């Protein structure tokens, strides 16, 4: 298939794209490349990918001609990024993605996959493990935008246009565009830097986790599945056993990397907490995760110790980087003369 991947230069995109190529799909990568083009270039390692640097709000719809499927990853990608600018979060994560889904249908694209998030469940009683039929309870601008994108894209499904929404767990693991603003990755980095695992207060909140390779495999499963099984459907992506309370997660991460369990608290109490079931994706698509939380923590720690990942790369903390870009834009405007700095 010819697959348009938006946000292809991101944390998930740079793992997904090589997997798509391995499976024989052609990839068109559309991204602003806020985190640089180098991550995707390294990921594709000389393989043929059409790269388009553009914004999903304003891109030329002609690029959808001849495309078979869209995997629409581009977004301001977590809750804090959403709080950075609520209006832009809505424009990008909701309106632009809804527009892509609509344009894709008009241009004869056969499948649209929306990588959504389990964060739309917000807060649920920890005694109940929730499935896709539970009423969402989005608590942040990011979660509300994901839900609105689901609500606008899923009704477009018909017998010629397959639409699937995947509610991904919190992702972890190594990626060419590394993110240390995700729970497991950040815990390992915190220990690497300061000898203590940072834990977001109050530690009793539940979250499901999925490795970046596994969530990419789930996106490919949704791409390749018989339309009858997935059309108009929502799937949670993860594994039942990988719902973990945050304090326990920190203990497990320390044990996995073989270090003493020392920790420090940060942040205000987190009101998001949800335990999720993944029976639907397992029963419908036979999807099973392949990487454990322990293996994920170990690969990140090893990459830091072996200097494969630069712990000082500012781009790995998403919101900090977006803020830095905006600051630098103003700064450059102030300093450049005749279009040059020096
Ligand atoms: N990583 C997770 O834990 C997680 C969990 C659930 C859902 N998701 C969702 O998966 C998707 C990808 O997440 P990620 O972790 O790879 O994030 P990421 O921030 O690493 O990647 C997002 C990519 O989108 C691009 N982008 C952002 N705005 C754009 C715009 N207006 N036009 C074009 N490109 C734009 C960025 O340059 C970046 O390369 C997002 O939709 C995110 O909400 C991620």
What does this molecule look like?
It is a single chain. The chain has about 350 residues and is an alpha/beta fold. The protein has one domain (about 1-320): Rossmann fold (3-Layer(aba) Sandwich), CATH 3.40.50.720. The protein contains twelve helices and 14 strands. Strands 3-2-1-4-5-7-11 form a seven-stranded parallel beta sheet, with helices on both faces. The protein has a three-stranded mixed beta sheet with strand order 8-10-12. Strand 2 (about 25-30), helix 2 and strand 3 form a beta-alpha-beta unit. Helix 1 (about 15-20) crosses helix 7 and helix 4 (about 85-105) runs parallel beside helix 5. The longest helix is centred in the N-terminal third of the chain and has 21 residues, at about 85-105. The termini are far apart. The mean pLDDT is about 95. Bound molecules: nicotinamide-adenine-dinucleotide (NAD). Nicotinamide-adenine-dinucleotide binds near residues 92, 115, 182 and 318.
In short:
The chain is an alpha/beta fold and 342 residues long.
What composes the largest sheet?
Answer: 7 strands, parallel
Order of helices and strands: EHEHEEHHEEHEEHEEHHEEHEEHHH
Work out the helix count.
Answer: 12
In the CATH scheme, the class would be: Alpha Beta
Q: Residue share in helices? A: 25-40%
């Amino acid at each position: 298939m010819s697959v348009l991947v938006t946000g292809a230069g991101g944390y998930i995109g740079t793992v997904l794209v090589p997997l798509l190529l391995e499976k024989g799909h052609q990839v068109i990568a559309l991204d602003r490349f806020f985190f640089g083009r180098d991550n995707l270039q390294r990921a594709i390692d000389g393989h043929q990918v059409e790269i388009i640097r553009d914004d999903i709000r304003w891109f030329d719809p002609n690029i959808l001609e001849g495309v078979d499927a869209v995997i629409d990853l581009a977004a301001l990608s977590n809750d804090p990024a959403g709080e950075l600018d609520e209006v832009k979060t809505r424009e990008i994560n909701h309106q632009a993605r809804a527009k892509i889904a609509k344009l894709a249908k008009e241009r004869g694209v056969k499948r649209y996959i929306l990588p959504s998030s389990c964060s739309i469940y917000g807060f649920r009683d920890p005694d109940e493990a929730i499935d896709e039929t539970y009423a969402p309870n989005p608590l942040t601008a990011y979660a509300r935008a994901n839900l609105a994108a689901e609500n606008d894209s899923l009704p477009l499904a018909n017998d010629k246009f397959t639409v699937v929404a995947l509610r991904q767990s919190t992702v972890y693991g190594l990626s060419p565009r590394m993110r240390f603003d995700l729970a497991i990755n950040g815990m390992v980095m915190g220990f690497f830097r300061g000898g203590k695992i940072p834990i977001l207060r109050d530690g009793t909140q539940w979250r499901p986790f999925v490795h970046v390779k596994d969530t990419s495999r789930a996106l490919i499963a949704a791409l390749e599945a018989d339309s009858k099984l997935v059309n108009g459907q929502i799937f949670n992506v993860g594994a039942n056993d990988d719902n973990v309370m945050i304090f326990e997660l920190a203990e497990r991460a320390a044990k996995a990397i073989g270090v003493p369990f020392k920790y420090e608290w940060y942040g205000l109490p987190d009101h998001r907490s949800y335990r999720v079931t993944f029976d639907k994706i397992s029963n419908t698509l036979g999807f099973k995760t392949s990487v454990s939380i322990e293996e994920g923590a170990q690969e990140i720690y090893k990459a830091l110790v072996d200097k494969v990942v630069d712990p000082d790369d500012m781009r790995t903390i998403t919101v900090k980087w977006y803020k830095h870009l905006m600051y630098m834009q103003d700064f450059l405007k102030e300093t450049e003369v005749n279009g040059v700095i020096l």
